[in-house]
Amino acid sequence: MRPGISRPGRRAVRRGRPPASLRTVACLLLWSLSCLVASMRLVHAAPDRIEIGQAAFESRDDGYYVSGDFELDLKPRIAEALDRGLTLFFVVEAELTRSRWYWFDEKSVTAALHYRLSYYALTRQYRLSTGNLQVGFPTLAEALGVMSHVRDWKIAERGGPVRPGESYAAAVRMRLDTTQLPKPFQINAIANRDWTLESDWKRSVFEAH
To answer: What is the pTM of this model?
Structure first.
């Protein structure tokens, strides 16, 4: 080989492969970026379930009532479906069960309070309905805030199956009722945990008066 002329093949190989120090820095940058993305997802992720706080059963002159507080937030996929026109149905369930030593326990009361949540793009309002009552809200947070606080819900009449002086196992919970969704969403809800949204049962002992 003539002096002053290098071998092109060997130099090309050296140019195409960065030094080890640069490769290490690149790996560290990619690792830091992945950690940042994961932390952002954790910060903005909605809770996996509905949390239930206080719940109380009460005897009154005209019947028996329930009040309860829930912490409710929609997962991103559910909130996006709501904003695109899907109506969501939530149900609060309450039970009073009387223990019987001689037979199976008697479920004296089973009651359900239904909520219907929808979004109207023309008015940019969220509509929350329960029974014959319908109220509009400018934000989703306000609608969820009202639904999260159940107050003075009558579950049984006086003189009905609840016996004054008896003790009952009381339980209450809230859940997203996926059986009310359109069929394609029901199938998706079975296979996708993002559509599973419910609280545990809040259990206590209720002394009827």
So the answer is: 0.75
